[in-house]
Amino acid sequence: MAVSEVPESVGTTTSTASASVQSDSNLNLPSLRRRPVFHSSVNPDTCSEVGDQKLEAPNVINQKIPEQVPDVSALKFAYRPSVPAHRRVKESPLSSDNIFRQSHAGLFNLCIVVLVAVNSRLIIENLMKYGWLIKYGFWFSSKSLRDWPLFMCCLSLAVFPLAAFVVEKLVQQKYISEPVVVLLHITITTAALLYPVSVILRCDSAFFSGVTLMLFACIVWLKLVSYAHTNYDMRALTRSIEKGEALPNSLNMEYQYNVSLKSLAYFMVAPTLCYQLSYPRTPCIRKGWVFRQLIKLIIFTGVMGFIIEQYINPIVQNSQHPLKGDLLNAIERVLKLSVPNLYVWLCMFYCFFHLWLNILAELLRFGDREFYKDWWNAKTVDEYWRMWNMPVHKWMVRHIYFPCLRNGIPKGVAILIAFLVSAVFHELCIAVPCHIFELWAFIGIMFQVPLVLITNYLQNKFRNSMVGNMIFWFIFCILGQPMCVLLYYHDLMNRKGNTN
Q1: How far apart are CA 419 and CA 432, in angstroms?
Q2: What pLDDT, in 10s, does the model give residues 127-151?
Q3: Phi, psi of 430 (to 5 degrees)
Q4: According to the model, what pLDDT value does residue 143 have?
Q5: How far apart are CA 238 and CA 314, in angstroms?
Q6: Where are the strands (E) in 393-483, listed by range?
Q7: What's the number of CA atoms in the CB half-sphere (13 Å) around residue 434?
Q8: Three-class SS of residue 128?
Q9: 449 CB contacts (<8 Å, ≥6 apart)?
Q10: Three-class DSSP category at 53
Q11: What sections of 245-326 are H helices per DSSP?
Q12: In 3D, which of 494, 136, 133, 483 has the Cα closest to residue 314?
């Protein structure tokens, strides 16, 4: 056990004894010499010079001070048996009052080592049991080459933004009235969503192709709603200004109402869902940086496909329906599926929200790149939904939540409406490509509403971020997502079996 050479403090008895032993000769020791000081009668302005010149003042020792050596007399009385070893109240490092004040870097390293060891064993066990299962059918099968109707449908989605632009041009020239504009925009946005749904349902397409088309369709729908809603609001503000009505100082009118095809085209490809005439831009495109992010995107996409083919597929194929059969077997399958499912979810988040959106933003010199916040530190379910997908969150706040509040709808009902819209789109993106409408995704999203209330209550009760964060991780990664994967897989297999 290493002991410091200098004690925390020396008691009165020890200090007195040490002082009595010192003799006049000890004052000549280099370690006990006093540093040169100025007397109060000396004017400091007359005795200091700039540079390497020596200080000149009366009664000042200008001799160079040698290096200090340990004081032998002080060490002689250090850590005597009579010196107290316990002087103040201290907590253990892992006590509840002291645990968050300590650095846990060593434990974090231990967790990484254990994680690597456990997953290495799982990889070896999986290869010994199933062999190499990687196939190209999940991503691009022969059926994917026959999905040309979905590809053509994806390309034809550009017609709907052009139709919305024509409508805005007509209302700008005052050829049509506001009620007609609203009706036309509702028709355009509805058609932009129902057209891809009908194409997917009519074609027996690959799952990945259907999901991709539905994601594009949902993004186009959200952008068109923002485009129509923003222009409607800017027309209303312009009319208020023309009438001479006073606007609040908090209202920032940076842009005049203008319908521009260039701004609409940039908005449709920009990594945002909220329309505005101008966006913060970066000065240049970092080509080397873009290339490095593309390499990362390819690598992590491959890792995601490897985990799905090698781990998730065997687990779900050897499982039973989670709502039928043996309960213990269902729990075992859910827990076994939770780990690879978590890895796929994290890879998906990193590939899309970090790599892809940043690559797109860099190519378009889009400046605002807050596509996510530190959702992994979320203490409640409410915080998670506000931080993990910032483009959708900003769209919800701008076009659903605050418009509901301005129309007198209570806050709780406005939150419920926002979750309802999110649930509908989650169901469309999963159920339509699977050709299954069991509402599992819809129920899973709407189940977040009571979870928001429960986690907020627990957070206010315990006042501990650790409790809420653990509940969040358990609900999303251990219980929720693996359960949805098993439910949709078995319903899909049952549908294919009935079809055959």
Answers
A1: 19
A2: 888 777 776 555 555 555 667 888 8
A3: -105, -45
A4: 58
A5: 60
A6: none
A7: 23
A8: helix
A9: 415, 416, 419
A10: coil
A11: 261-269, 287-307, 313-317
A12: 133
| Phi, psi torsion values for 366, nearest 5 degrees | -80, 125
Could you tell me which residue, 54 or 177, shows the higher pLDDT?
177
- Over the stretch 20-53, which tens digit does the pLDDT of each residue have? 334 344 434 343 334 444 444 444 444 433 333 3
pLDDT of residue 338: 83
What is the maximum alpha-carbon separation in the chain?
108
Question: What is the C-alpha separation between 270 and 222, in angstroms, rounded?
Answer: 13
Catalytic residue among 229, 354, 426, 435: 426
What is the spatial distance between Cα 201 and Cα 498, in angstroms, rounded to a whole number?
A: 17
d(CA 105, CA 110): 9
Query: If pLDDT is split at 50, 70 and 90, which confidence band does 304 have?
Result: confident
Q: Which of 340, 374, 401, 400 is nearest to 472 (CA)?
A: 374
What totals of helices (H) and strands (E) does the chain contain, helices first? 21, 0
DSSP letter at 366 equals B
Given a cut of 80, is residue 280 above it in pLDDT? Answer: yes
SS (H, E, C) 130-194: HCCCCCCCCCCCHHHHCCHHHHHHHHHCCHHHHHHHHHHHHHHCCCCCHHHHHHHHHHHHHHHHH
Check residue 279 and report its DSSP letter.
Answer: -
| Mean pLDDT for the chain overall | 78
Give the 3-state secondary structure of residue 485. Answer: helix
Report the chain's C-alpha Rg in angstroms. 34
Distance CA 334, CA 3 (A): 52
Q: Is 229 a catalytic residue?
A: no
pLDDT mean over 219-237 = 92
Look up residue 324 and give its DSSP letter: S
pLDDT for 52 equals 39
Place of tokens 């907020």: 456
pTM above 0.85?
no
